[in-house]
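Researcher: Predict the fold of Dihydrolipoamide dehydrogenase.
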Amino acid sequence: MADNTYDVIVIGGGAVGEVLAERVVKRGLSAVIVESELLGGECSYWACMPSKALLRSGEALRAAKNVKGASAAVTGELDAAAVLERRDSFTRNWDDSSQREWADGAGITVLKGRARLDGPKRVVVRLNDGNAGNGGTGGTGGTGGEERTLEARHAVAACVGSLPRIPDIPGLREVRPWTSRDATSAKEAPRRLAVIGAGPVGSELAQAWNDLGSQVTLLVAEDRMLPTLEPFAGEYVAKAHVEAGIDVRTNVTVQSVSRLAGTGGGEGDVGPLSVQTDQGEIVVDQILAATGREPSTGELGLETVGLEPGRWLDVDDSCRVNGVEGGWLYSAGDTNHRALFTHQGKYQARVCGDAIAARARGEHAAPVAWSPYAATADHGAVPAVVFTDPEVAMVGLTEQAAIDQGMTVRVAEYEIGNVAGAALYVDGYTGHAKLVVDQERLVPVGFTAVGPAAGELLHAATVAIVGEVPLDRLWHAVPAYPTVSEVWLRLLETYGM
Ligand SMILES: Cc1cc2nc3c(=O)[nH]c(=O)nc-3n(C[C@H](O)[C@H](O)[C@H](O)COP(=O)(O)OP(=O)(O)OC[C@H]3O[C@@H](n4cnc5c(N)ncnc54)[C@H](O)[C@@H]3O)c2cc1C
Ligand SMILES: NC(=O)c1ccc[n+]([C@@H]2O[C@H](COP(=O)([O-])OP(=O)(O)OC[C@H]3O[C@@H](n4cnc5c(N)ncnc54)[C@H](O)[C@@H]3O)[C@@H](O)[C@H]2O)c1
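Model: Structure tokens for Dihydrolipoamide dehydrogenase follow.
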């Protein structure tokens, strides 16, 4: 008879749930992860990893073509089949056995099944068919359809991620559009692809499938791509997308989607899709809804602990869910809607795991800003890279967001191509950087760069913003010559130093 009591029950074994479980086990607690699909979650199998694998080969090809001396050696085209094969190797063909081995080694029990809360500190799991748990420390075997009730001594952490949101456009659901899951796992390129939405998902995947041979139309509701970032970021990416052959349409409303008749070629003959917009009709073979995320808490049993199902979970800075008596429910990662990025969710998981372990020892572990028990960086120092070509890297606040928060700001902007390191890196480097400075404290609060490999400029900016490094000290952080990072010096000079 298995022991069904654990110190910590983690619901959802995505990247975030894994880190949380690992953290509490390292602090001496026992932990079980309940995962209904693949251990490793969205990032490993349908998001970060496959999307970046799809993008990387095209980027490498263009990089070589843009350096005189190397370009002459590049005579072929992108090998789409090899790119897809490489993508499959990163997802291990959607097999999570290595992750389960990792969990075993880390002393984490894994149960494969669907979990729901059933009152305080209690979780009911409907085991998957042929439950492929790791049988770890708690002894987990079990057969499909069977229900098992788990009890937590200290905490339950809901790390159930988020789901793709499909908007209420007439006909869209009926034609079963691609979501990010399909667009990261597809085995061949549709001839014509419409992408709705130009956030990170739409911007990256439009590029990936254009590289792989699809004729892509990107439908942007706003006046620019990447509308929540500094305006120049979306403008640079849109220009590159258009030059690469993508039809980027802005200020467009998608009115309806319907399937046209096939050619009468028998079973399996599906006709193309007609996408009606206020700028005319587009006929495509596939449509991707890259239209944001929604909570995946609808069937989590939140009503049994006094919370409303189907909502993002509201947490304090230690990722403890607000409004739950006894304070035993936590949530890290997409589910708390603080910052929907793998790295930031894993940061929350480290903070949350430490807070749970400290409280299990009887400590108060108050989420005081910048303490080990507070995910303070979520509030104004979240780094992110959009892996388009050119890349967009940003951390902290945009100029507008800083103004909206009541700050008095001054900005400095610089063309990255003017620094020697950038000119050497690629012929005709095109890129732009912007620093946002809080004039009261004279510290940087935001940084955005767009350009080839701009993502590698980001961590310096993150350190400066998290460290609230005053500009007169930042002045002494000398970038090595000739690196692209010299843009830092130029930004400070442009600012007036
Ligand atoms: C196309 C795409 C590209 C992205 N690229 C990047 C990127 O480059 N960098 C980056 O930082 N972020 C990226 N993101 C965002 C990133 O994927 C998410 O922020 C991250 O996956 C969130 O991790 P998580 O563990 O919170 O959730 P998930 O990875 O979604 O994990 C949640 C897990 O919970 C399981 N689950 C749900 N409900 C239950 C239940 N009731 N019982 C048992 N198990 C359950 C699910 O099966 C899932 O495995 C991308 C997102 C998309 C869509
Ligand atoms: N490189 C990365 O770090 C990376 C990559 C991909 C995704 N992500 C994360 O995944 C999450 C989801 O990304 P996303 O791009 O799907 O979401 P998003 O919310 O950033 O962008 C969705 C876009 O779809 C548009 N949209 C929504 N409904 C629409 C409609 N009916 N018609 C036309 N347009 C519509 C919105 O206006 C918005 O611009 C984000 O939070 C992001 O942080 C990160």
